[in-house]
Amino acid sequence: xxKRSWFSLYLGIRNFYSFRKGKKRTMAGAAIAVxxxxxxxxxxxxxxxxxxxxxxxxxxxxxxxxxxxSPYDDMDMNGYEELSLQLMExxxxxxxxxxxxxxxxxxxxxxxxxxxxxxxxxxxxxKDDGFxxxxxxKEGSFDLSDSSGIMLSGEIAGLLGVGTGxxxxxxxxxxxxxxxxxxxxxxxxxxxxxxTGYYEVDAMTGYIGLEKGEKLFRDEGYLSIQCKIKDxxxxxxxxxxxxxxxxxxxxxxxxxxxxxxxxxxxxxTTRILLVFIMGIIIIVAAVNITSSMIIMVIxxxxxxxxxxxCGTSNRQIRNSFIVTGMITGLSxxxxxxxxxxxxxxxxxxxxxxxxxxxxxFSSISRAGDSFSxxxxxxxxxxxxxxxxxxxxxxxxxxxxVVLSVIAALMPARKAEKMMPLDIMxxx
Length: 427
What we know:
The longest helix is centred in the middle third of the chain and has 39 residues, at about 260-300. The protein is α+β, with helices and mostly antiparallel strands and about 425 residues long. The mean pLDDT is about 85. The strands form 2 sheets. It has a 6-stranded mixed beta barrel. A two-stranded antiparallel ribbon has the order 1-2. The protein has 2 domains: about 5-55 and about 265-425, no CATH class; about 100-220, no CATH class. About 55% of the residues lie in helices and about 20% in strands. It starts with a helix and ends with a helix.
């Protein structure tokens, strides 16, 4: 590095930590503003990515599968099971099984509620890794081998006031050929209570055995084959095409994204809007750097005049203020990134802390029940998962530094154009 460059760097550091008239004047305030703008950006990106990933994973592993197949021709259960075995021979497919879906009214002695029933193979928990990963058994055991057994989510079990071993009844409807609707009550015993951590599933889902589901929903239910593949995010479309070309049947193949396209697009659109708003905050912080440096240039005009009179070039003066802006951005971005990561990683603890604080204030003020800062019904997930993406974190930090340098260009240009003779004549 040339001596002139070293001198510009030295002046830039001196500008960042400058002393004048016995008072320390620094760009610390501008750096703090940058840090405070970077913190919410990091938190929003990491937490929103984690929430979208958590929702998506639970939905595709527990509800839709990665690819859903429906033959256009009529086929009995044996045909579906044979087709599932054929699918398992495709290298990209990890698991495939027929699934019945139906709706009904489930009730106990204490209450009743609507429910979406999924009829699954009784060995799904052993063979489907994704299903096993996201299904937490809260009480009892996952047992679908008993035709009279049913698995209920914690939300539904709590609403009905039932636990493991209690009896419930499921009311389903059947339309006869004459158009009449027949209501059929069926008795079940609760074998276990589960939680997925995803409110949309927990609020209305129950599981029964596949054979029982065929009896209940043969006429009114929906039968399909759910496939789990190795890479649902990157190869779902390609695998769906391969399945269509491999299976010698007229079938419909739908990927997980196309099944719930509107929901996923809504999640990503919300995330983009949040990031855009946080980006505006960083721009405002960069403007604060501009105003702070303009004040610095005005305050240091005598020093600038002396430096120019002693042979310092206009370019060195300009570069020194650009260096000051870069140091301000670097220090603010570094502090903001560290703080943002700490908050993101511990976001659930932070939320629980404020929840406890809310409960404490409510008990002291006797204002009644405390409000819930985060609830599953509002935020979908019981806990917010956090996915750290080094690339995005680095991009936010670099963006803050680049904006800080851009913000320093105007004050640097102003300092460069100052005429030492005019300054000395006036001051």
